[in-house]
Amino acid sequence: MSRKAFILLACLLLSTPLVRAQETQKSELHQKAEAIDQNKEIAKARSTFIHAFNDYANKGQVKPGVECAVKATALYYKENFYQEAFDLLRRADQTIVASKLDAAGKAALHYLTTKERMQMYIKMRRSPSALEQLGRLEAFANQSGDEHIKDDLLYNKAIYYYTFGLTAQGNAVFKQMADKLTKQKEYGKVDEVYKTLIENGRKSGNANMVAQSYSNYIAWKDSANAQKVADEIGALKEQIATQQATIVDKDSSLSTRWATIIGLGILALALAAALAIGAVVLLRYIVLSRKQKNVIQLANESNALKAKFISNISTQMAPTLQKLDNHLPEVRALQQFTDHIQTLSEIENTADDAVEKEDTQIQPFCEELIGQIRGKVKKGVTLTVDAPKMSVKLNKEYVTHIVSHLLGNAAEFTPEGGTIKLTFKKRGPHTNQIMVTDTGSGIPEDQREDIFKPFLKVHDLAKGDGLGLPICKQMALKMKGDLTVDPEYSKGTRFILELR
After folding, report:
1. Would the pTM of this model clear 0.70, i.e. be above it?
2. CA dihedral angle for residue 336, residue 342, residue 347, residue 349, rounded to 10 degrees
3. Strands 431-438 vs 419-428: parallel, antiparallel or unpaired
């Protein structure tokens, strides 16, 4: 099990850190060490972490000092310098003992150093020594009185048992941990724990760990899915009953038909959101075997059923929409809304399908796209194109849809005398960017991530359903690219479409 995997699982299992950092900010040495570590300069990062540990210890700041010592230890045994790693942990323990922390605080810090020792023994395949450290871990966890540390202990027990072939004990501990989180309805945490355990078993070549983890995961998944589906169905039934009662109380006037539109729209939105949440992709977390192929097939069938179910919703709504006046803007808005839901579902259902690409001359392609909004912009708005004379392979259908939508938004929100610019940049051998920049009012920082999320809130359909940008985002992802808002641009809005 790699150190990266342990850090990931700690984040998933614990809502707060195992050892809460002191209120003071990280020292300059500490920040410098972390920056060097990110650049993969192992020896330099290790040395800087040790200097930060000594600096913290001299100032009496024990908690961040131990954190630096533990990170330096991991960088030692990453290059098989085990003796140096053990010596550094011994110094960290001496610092903890000499500190003025209470017994619980010292136990929490000893837990961190002891866990690092256990990880080294596991890497060296020394089962008795690792088991001894596991016993000390349990004692320190109990002394700390911290439930988050006790949760982390369960995970480390499971890792030890699975690594050394103690399957029954590993299953029992992992079930205890999964049951605890499931009881708290934290399904996402349990799901990520299982997937990470499977992936790390695969990377380390531990077939026993992969097999047992996968078997337990499937059993838990069936149980959790059944409970979630039951909860969702109950909530939807209650909502449907409320809508039906409302419709019965209305007369056959225009107000009745409007209530019907609202009820159908909310119901379609709720069903689509529930189905989207229920979609689970297991392809990244399983190895190729007969059982895993069956799981993949079931997942594909589930996605197909989702698309069919959404199509059925549209079909069931059609008779009601046909009875309404097609000239009403509300009716047209609802029709567009159902079309957008269908489009979004189809893109998600074929997310793993390869998209076709064709050679495209970039400069005339960009000129044609920006030319489509010349009659839509406000007075005095300047339109410019910055694109090289080159040919690039891309999916013209998706790229045209995305860029046209972004340019349409820019035309709507750019005031008189403003500027709209379409730019194409080559960023690497296989990476290109298309940027749409305007000098409009911009998007508030706290809303930038939400604009790409479908079904985040109920919209006034007559003013738009909020699915335009989410559909563009899904198209970009299907092309193995991405669509984002440039956080550094402050004179309006700049969207960046990355293509690979």
Report:
1. no
2. 170
3. antiparallel
